[in-house]
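Example record

One chain of 122 residues, shown exactly as stored in the release files.
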Amino acid sequence: MKIVVVDDSSTMRRIIKNTLNSIGYKDLLEGDDGIEGWEQIDSNPNIDIIITDWNMPNMNGLELVKKIRADKRFQDTPIIMVTTEGGKAEVITALKAGVNNYIVKPFTSQILKEKLSAVIGV
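Predicted structure tokens for this chain:
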């Protein structure tokens, strides 16, 4: 399963990737903002899941989600947003943009595992 992790914090990308590795996901790509994330996604059309932060420079996570959903190749690709934005309005905005699930930082590896299972139907 190929997963793209997009976050401007290298520490957060490492935490997410280590968590994914520990639960068996090894085929991981990363981007440090929405532009780099989109480049990874666009050049790897066999992406299974996208995990993105909201607050990033250059192209934020919400803009990235809208760009992904506007591309027919990725309309059904599950997207999990991992962010500090935990307000109800933000969650609703993200879901309306096309996010499949939402995790508020800080989070545990168990939460990430549960949200992943929910979007892939395991």
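Notes: The two ends are 13 Å apart (CA to CA).
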